[in-house]
Amino acid sequence: LSMLEKTDPFDIVLDGLNIAFKASRKNRSPSTFAFQLKSMVKYFASQNKKVLVLGRKHMKKWPSGDMSYVFNNAEVFLAEDISQDDPFLLYAALYSGLGTCFVSQDMMRGHKCLLSDPKLQATFVKWQAQHQYFTIFIDDKGGVGLKEPVSFVQSIQHNSRGDWHIPYVVKENLTTEVRVDNYHRHWLCLTKQSPPPQPTSGPYERRRQPVSLGRPKVALKSIFDA
């Protein structure tokens, strides 16, 4: 907490061990771990992002070449080796404000379940979906691939024109809970159509017209994958 109070808000918070362990099982070594972390720090530092790396003290033993870059281009907080680093990650991201994102493969399900209020759980999932990056790959040359957070709230929405956008899940992808890494990709979009012009007719013909004539109709506009 004292470190966060003394520094400006961070743009990005990195789960150091989580990123390092993204390496394939064949290449798992301290040198690979350090290179993975350095590549991620470099990716965001090159965008002039203020980076915070969270990890554990044993990471100091990783090769100094790549770790020197990490320490010189990011703020680094190393917790005790026996401690849990996820609470530090979430606290740092939330403390820095709504503009701060974080990188981790962890779904944070355990932390969500600690929230007894279902509304708070839903709020947490929405915040997580809009602020969490997932690492897709880090190649041998230091290239980084990330799955970015969603840029909009994935819930039923409508506008002043009466258009509705409704997310849905196809049966094959249906799960027992909303997952941040597989949020709604399918949307049903509905829009109002103007009623057709009524034909000119006498009093008798007007009485024979159905009651629904002239009411605004809702038509299927499109179904697409976001």
TrEMBL record:
The terms describing its cellular component in GO are: mitochondrial ribonuclease P complex
Q: Which Gene3D superfamilies match?
A: 3.40.50.11980
- Does the keyword section mention Transit peptide? yes
The similarity comment for this entry is:
Belongs to the PPR family. P subfamily.
Q: Can the keyword Hydrolase be found in this entry's annotation?
A: yes
* Full protein name: PRORP domain-containing protein
**One MF term from GO for this chain?**
metal ion binding
For region Disordered, the annotated ranges are 191-215
Task: Name the major location.
Answer: mitochondrion
Start and end of every PRORP domain? 4-189
Q: Which PANTHER family does its entry note?
A: MITOCHONDRIAL RIBONUCLEASE P CATALYTIC SUBUNIT (PTHR13547:SF1), PTHR13547
